[in-house]
Amino acid sequence: VRETLPASKEAKPPRRTIKLTHPDRLYWPDDGVTKEGLADYYSQIWQHIAPYVSGRPLALLRCPNGIGGEKFFQKHAWKGISSHITLVNDPAEPGGNPFIAISNLDGLLALVQSAVLEIHPWGAPITDWDHPDMLTMDIDPGDNVSWPAVMDAAKEIQQRLEASGLSAFVKTSGGKGLHVVAPLAKKNDWQEVKTFAKGLADAMAADSPDRYISTISKAKRRGKVFIDYLRNQRGSTAVAAYSTRARPGAAVSTPINWEELSSDIGPDYFTVLTLPVRLDGLTADPWQDFWAAAAPLGKRKAR
Ligand code: ATP
Ligand code: MN
Ligand code: MN
To answer: pTM here?
Structure first.
């Protein structure tokens, strides 16, 4: 069940009930962000992240010794997992290894306690695994690509999505690029959504072969932007809006308004330390209309 965003920003975060062991453990040593600092961050922004992490299968990047240590990308439950985390079975795989889901702030804080530094949800809810409610176009600049070229790619994707009757929302990845996300009405299955996303990426590469590439080949990416449509397959994930990244700088994948897209805001501009301040200063979440804008894929293919 999705929680609506608070009408007023005075809504206080719920009180924390999860016990943290080693609250002073440094997860981002260079930035001074501890396990407790991460728990405080998620408690403050819970209302904003909830719709993107609640009630979905989650892949998690766990870093028990912080971002400098070993990293484990996990799609399934582990031994001794917290009771605040829900185990869910993929209906397509009865008796398979259970997936991980959360439904409230305690669940999110249990992830923090388990050293989860990145949250990567599916684009479909656990109530309907086969009908994605979001499409993610992941913009991946190759070497030697300028930031304005990345912004141009995002705006072109926005235009193409809108031309096919979808709404487009943009967020920084917290890494090197941008993600353009379209809310979907859950009328289409993964195959249809993937075909549509691939069509969009292929059309961009065909129209501007010097700027865009829609095939994975790393070698050919130099100087070009890879339009990564592959987040849109059953079982694929993309980092959640408002999730932290396990990279130096403690950046957060941050929803922004299209008007904010500029050279002032790079892909890792907003961080664990600055994002709560940003949200306090905004009158509304930049993605507050996200779910209301959900639409089905049109009959026409993307172009
Ligand atoms: P950037 O802007 O730096 O590209 P990104 O989050 O978009 O950041 P990508 O490398 O483009 O990173 O996307 C990788 C995606 O693949 C992640 O979002 C994640 O959901 C998924 N993924 C699959 N396997 C892994 C893995 N072993 N480690 C990290 N991510 C993985
Ligand atoms: Mn990317
Ligand atoms: Mn990618």
So the answer is: 0.94
